Amino acid sequence: MAVKLLKSKTGEASSHKYETLLKLTILSLGAILSFSTRLFSVLRYESVIHEFDPYFNYRTTKFLAEEGYFAFHNWFDDRAWYPLGRIIGGTIYPGLMVTAAVFHYVLNFFNFLVDVRNVCVFLAPLFSSFTTIVTYLLTKELKNESAGLTAAVMIAIVPGYISRSVAGSYDNEGIAIFCMLLTYYFWIKAVKTGSIAWAAACSLAYFYMVSSWGGYVFLINLIPLHVFVLMVTGRFSHRIYVAYSTLYCIGTILSMQIPFVGFQPVQSSEHMLAFGVFGLAQILAFIDYLKSKLTQEQFDTLFHAVFSLFGIIVIGAVSVLLITGKISPWTGRFYSLLDPSYAKNNIPIIASVSEHQPTAWSSFYFDLQLLVFLFPVGLYVCFSNLNDANIFIILYGITSIYFAGVMVRLMLVLAPVMCIMGGIAVASLLGKYIKDIDQGSKSHEKKTVKGRDSQQSQSRRSEISMAFVGMLTFFMVMYAFHCTWVTSEAYSSPSIVLSARSYDGSLIIFDDFREAYYWLRMNTPPDAKIMSWWDYGYQITAMANRTILVDNNTWNNTHISRVGQAMASPEDKAYEIMRELDVDYVLVIFGGLTGYSSDDINKFLWMVRIGGSTDRGSHIKEQDYYSSNGEFRVDREGSQNMLNCLMYKMCYYRFGQMYTEGGKPTGYDRVRSAEIGNKDFELDVLEEAYTTEHWL
Amino acid sequence: MFLPAVDIRIRITGVKSWKVKNKSRAFWSGQFNVSNALLLSTVSSAQYSFCVAYTKVRMRALNVALFLCCLGVAICQQVEVEPLVIQHAERTIDISSQLVQISHKLKIENTGATGGKYVLFTVEPQLKSHLSFFGATLGKEGKGLRSTIVPLNSLTSALTYRIELPTPVTKGKTVDVEVETVYTRYIEPFPTEISQKDKQLVKYVGSHYLYSPYKVVKQTTKISMASKNIESFTKLKPFSQSDSSLTFGPYENIAPTSVSELTVHYENNSPFLTVTKLERVIEVSHWGNIAVEEKIEILHTGAKLKGSFSRFDYQREPNSGISSIKAFKTILPAAARDVYYRDDIGNISTSNMYVKHDSVELTLRPRFPLFGGWKTRYVIGYNLPSYEYLFADGSQYALKMRLLDHVFDTLVVDELVVKIILPEGSSDLKLKTPYEVRQLPRTLHFTYLDVTGRPVITLTKRNLVENHIQDFTLEYNFPRVYMLREPLVVILAFLVLFVTVLIYVRLDFSISSSKAAASKGGNSAVSETVLRRHGKRAGLYETFDTQLSKLKANKDASAYQAALKNLTQDHKAETQAINDIITKTRPESPELADSITELQKLDRGFWEVYIQYGQSLEKLVAGKMARPQFLEQDNQFNTKRDELAEKINKIIKTL
């Protein structure tokens, strides 16, 4: 007797309650896990902001929290880009800062004295636990609840996302992923129900996304793409019409409220797909309307006439706008997305950022592990049960996997969809096989008069299922271990404090960055101008509170190029450039003593390339800095240009007398494993102001 | 509410100085203590009304006093230099650190017929602004003597202290007085700028003679320095030099206030560190903890660094940058725990902590070595158990802690700000300080779970040295019941949260579905009766099952027939009852009626399946059917029954 007649609803209701409890427990555990796994760096080091960009965000947040929104909006920052300055309010995505400032304000209103720094440090983990919940909701809409739970737990620990959201990595991406998934969730809801309310919620979420990250462009292209594919596959309906029209209208108007975005949504090419699809949606809806009113023949005639006329008008208008420059061409970063080699050839400044490099295959596995294999399975499951929502997630998966391949940074966008797909895959596989185990055990118990063969096949099936489920569980456990390991080893160092193990196993901490910045802060005049390579710009303004020439917001290529020229020129020429730029101090980072490999000498080639990329620096050629063999060397065989440029001299000043490693001559560079070529020299125009303990 | 009290206090202070000028001590002595007490304590709210009344009475007296004082000033000189003679003066000037610590051993004889109640001690004009600490003790017993600043007409430019003796010195008798003075930032680096490899040379300018309003019969001066490396010094005979010290004198019969310039130019590489600002926050919690946090700004006040700083030389040569400061030791109370050391941009990783039996020694290394003119800023904080510093008597508490604590040896603090944060609800604050400090207006501090705010007392004083590390006492009233306030706030907050959730879950806020919900509510009674009826019917099927299995086992067809008759009757009755409900509900909610009708239809099918199965079983029992055929039917029956049961269950769930 397999199915029993229910006598009443009560039994079912209590099991429903248990289910809710279980769901809530899993979900909240997932959220807590995603928060706590990101705290490695805080526990190991301290509650400190990481990397470069977050320092700028932290500084602006502090300003916002102290001065209020209007002052922030009108803030002209004279500390950066001397002598040009920078209008902060109009050149950033304020979502992150506003969010943090609101948290700070609310907490302080209730007398929870949490300072801005701590709010900033813990914002990213907090939002990743929100992301966990949103992922659950989204996957639930796409597949079912069990898939949702699996995806939520997976995203809680996926390294690809953790890399950008550990405590202290206070960057736009931290909250942007949450916004993105939230927008997707509302979008799926809107598509499914066709209700204006959901579409409006979606556009609000979209607004939040726009205010927090430049990556919103991906979103505003993906959703129209989805709509477009639905049109092509003949799934276009009133629901989609309502959802998309609402989203596009409200979303565009809202997004234009962000000063940095401005009129881009109606002018730039990146947004044209959205606009075109919007127009197309109107036409399609109109055609549907006409179809219902007219006979077939009348309709055909009208259709042909109008279609050709309209097509000509649109093409004409777009080309006129393009020529007159009303629609701006695509930006460099966007080009480099479509054509990975574009940046390398044209804009060295974009290519010089490590996170804009194409992704290595190994890093896919490193960041996603099991999900790499589950992704196709999830894709298959989605295809086998095709509907409007599934088409969306398929599109999202495929486009993001392409983008992640082009740019390391966009691994972040890929990670959530990988988790969703993985969740769907695991849930459907487990669902299938666990059922078999159930049946198998039941048939065993029953021992009815069934045939021997069928019974045997039943039991074998159950064994296979058992093995499969066991294997999958094993993989999942491995995944969890891998994620934790990656998080703890690779993504939890603040990069501002370096640590190494000495021979006897004790921990050595290199805190030279902060040593230098703090020295600048305390012991230079408040209006001192500091020249350094742009990587350190944000950190200097935030930690040393001094004026700098260039920073990580690389908006002015010529200015950066000028600094690159100064670094690459011999001392006397550099002096002229520095006088022109009104520089008081020069900061270089040198890792030759400690073996810190991402120092300025290793970045030097980029300085040369960027320095030589403008007219004024055309005399600086990359070739001049290579040795005769075409190698980049700092030892005796290095080119004379190299051995006499400002950067070289500053880094290796008096390094020639220094013993760094036993058994090696003086001036042995531990990063490049070479004895330096030019040892005894004096600085003529600069003097050593301060060198940190480990010569960084 | 507190402000008027402070105002009164200031006035009284003013009067006090008047009082000193006036010599009629007998008249004032009674009130001296009162005003002093008022000076040291700030009047709390409870005492306020009393105070106002009291002050009104006093104000009249003060007016009279004011008048008398004016008269006094006009008639007589403020302080007389009594006919005392210093028989022997021994000065030890310690200039081995950045401080000038001078201890005087004075043997004083009264040569006049009267007086002898006090001794005057003057500080040279150029040293006046550098004086940080002044202390006088009675020679033999080492007993502390009370001293006050008095104006001296003959020496207006100097600073004169009047040291009051416990017993007056009568004519011809002598008394031993020891005076300890500490001057800060008086030793000047000379040259003022040095390069990294240079040693730091400093210059001390003083006098060979004791600057005194009295005649000095015989005096010697000993100067001890940091090193034996002396560039030059004024050679007023007799003098002697040994190792790192110089001895001048004895000089005999020197007239009052005579000066002979003494200069020593010598090497001094001891740390010239000045705390330019120290902000000390003491937060008292009655849950057993006192949190102390000190924000410290440090400046190297020695010779400034000239030229570049070379890390290479600094690491290679031990004498390079000898006057710079790499690290210093801070001694914290023995009970200090959870010590942290950080600055504006985060934790400073270069520090060591040694826990000793009577103190916690902290070796602090700033982020960078401090050269002349370089400064840094850091925060240090720690927790202390309150039982060592907080004493209770009922609801009356006394906090006894150091006003200033050790930062480094030979400490100089330019400006000290102490903030004492008491628990929320404390009242009747009475503060006793070991030396005079300026009290700033009281404020309120809000932190976790505070409603009304915590009272904060802020004190400030300039120019302090190690001798100022002394205890203050703060008495206040704190009802123990207030301890429960914070837990109650938490409980209340959670209560509000839960109640809100409760209300939110229980109430339906939506607008559109309200009608449907209402009709659903009306129908719930109907569906309940249907469910009840259906439940009974399900019971009938179970009986049917047992009857069937009985038939299979016993092969008793007649018994089965009888049971079947009963079952059919009962089933009919229930079905009819449900049918009645359908007709009743149809006009009100056709949807519900539809679903029940569907249920009925399925149930009919279900019943048929059972009946048919029963018939074939009967046939089998009667031997009218072959077994294989029956098994086939059995299978069919099972699948059909499962299918229908599933459908029925689905409908039941929606009801």
UniProtKB/TrEMBL annotation, chain A:
Pfam families according to UniProt: STT3, STT3-PglB_core
Give the E.C. number(s).
2.4.99.18
* Subcellular location(s) per record: Endoplasmic reticulum membrane
Under which main EC class is this enzyme filed?
transferase
Coiled coil segments of this chain? none
Q: In which pathway does it act?
A: Protein modification; protein glycosylation
Question: In the UniProt record, does the keyword rRNA-binding occur?
Answer: no
TM region(s), chain numbering: 21-40, 87-107, 119-139, 145-162, 174-207, 213-233, 240-260, 272-290, 302-323, 364-383, 390-408, 414-434, 464-482
The entry lists its GO molecular-function terms as:
dolichyl-diphosphooligosaccharide-protein glycotransferase activity; metal ion binding
Which domain of life does this protein belong to? Eukaryota
Q: Which GO terms describe its biological process?
A: post-translational protein modification; protein N-linked glycosylation via asparagine
Any one annotated GO CC term: endoplasmic reticulum membrane
Q: Give the membrane topology, semicolon-separated if more than one.
A: Multi-pass membrane protein
- Oligosaccharyl transferase STT3 N-terminal domain span: 22-421
User: What cofactor does this protein call for?
Assistant: Mg(2+); Mn(2+)
Provide the alphabetized UniProt keywords. Endoplasmic reticulum, Glycoprotein, Glycosyltransferase, Magnesium, Manganese, Membrane, Metal-binding, Transferase, Transmembrane, Transmembrane helix
Which residues belong to any copy of the STT3/PglB/AglB core domain? 530-586
Q: Does the keyword Transferase apply?
A: yes
Q: Which reaction does it catalyse?
A: a di-trans,poly-cis-dolichyl diphosphooligosaccharide + L-asparaginyl-[protein] = N(4)-(oligosaccharide-(1->4)-N-acetyl-beta-D-glucosaminyl-(1->4)-N-acetyl-beta-D-glucosaminyl)-L-asparaginyl-[protein] + a di-trans,poly-cis-dolichyl diphosphate + H(+)
What quaternary structure, including any partners, is listed in this protein's UniProt entry? Component of the oligosaccharyltransferase (OST) complex. There are 2 OST complexes, OST-A and OST-B, which contain STT3A or STT3B as catalytic subunit, respectively. OST-A and OST-B contain common core subunits RPN1, RPN2, OST48, OST4, DAD1 and TMEM258, and OST-A contains DC2/OSTC and KRTCAP2/KCP2 specific accessory subunits. OST-A complex assembly occurs through the formation of 3 subcomplexes. Subcomplex 1 contains RPN1 and TMEM258, subcomplex 2 contains the OST-A-specific subunits STT3A, DC2/OSTC, and KCP2 as well as the core subunit OST4, and subcomplex 3 contains RPN2, DAD1, and OST48.
Please give the family membership noted in the entry.
Belongs to the STT3 family.
- Name this polypeptide is given: Dolichyl-diphosphooligosaccharide--protein glycosyltransferase subunit STT3A
TrEMBL record, chain B:
Biological process terms from the Gene Ontology for this record are: protein N-linked glycosylation via asparagine
| Pathway participation | Protein modification; protein glycosylation
Q: Where in the cell is it found?
A: Endoplasmic reticulum membrane
Arranged from A to Z, the UniProt key words for this protein are: Endoplasmic reticulum, Membrane, Signal, Transmembrane, Transmembrane helix
Question: What cellular-component terms does GO give this entry?
Answer: oligosaccharyltransferase complex
Stored Pfam families: Ribophorin_I (PF04597)
Recorded topology in the membrane: Single-pass type I membrane protein
Annotated membrane-spanning segments are 487-505
Taxonomic superkingdom? Eukaryota
Q: How does it assemble?
A: Component of the oligosaccharyltransferase (OST) complex.
Tell me which family the UniProt entry assigns to this protein. Belongs to the OST1 family.
* Stated role: Subunit of the oligosaccharyl transferase (OST) complex that catalyzes the initial transfer of a defined glycan (Glc(3)Man(9)GlcNAc(2) in eukaryotes) from the lipid carrier dolichol-pyrophosphate to an asparagine residue within an Asn-X-Ser/Thr consensus motif in nascent polypeptide chains, the first step in protein N-glycosylation. N-glycosylation occurs cotranslationally and the complex associates with the Sec61 complex at the channel-forming translocon complex that mediates protein translocation across the endoplasmic reticulum (ER). All subunits are required for a maximal enzyme activity.
UniProt name for this protein: Dolichyl-diphosphooligosaccharide--protein glycosyltransferase subunit 1
